[in-house]
Amino acid sequence: MKQEFDFYIDERVMIWNRLKFSVEAETLEEAKDMAIFMVTKDREEIDFYDFELLQDTLTEMEVGDNEGNPTLELYCDKDAELIYDNANEDIKPINGFEKLYQDIAKANILTKL
Question: pTM for the complete prediction?
Fold first, then answer.
């Protein structure tokens, strides 16, 4: 009888994050100057009151964008074992599934033609 097995992907992506904070000042110009100083020289002291991940800016990263480190890792949920990452050009077959991987690789090549 077939069973269902769960997996998950950890993926490194680039995304813009909007961090909101307030500055008290006498004028808007003074507040702008203070905000620039805070962001460039004193950021750890900023009390952010809200943040928003700007979803429409999400971009997948390539291994080359990540200094040769993986940007995609595949895990088996049952034991949290890392079973694949994309840092290596070659897919590394595990547990005797070499032919299955070769067939998948051939199918992917054929669909790209």
Answer: 0.60
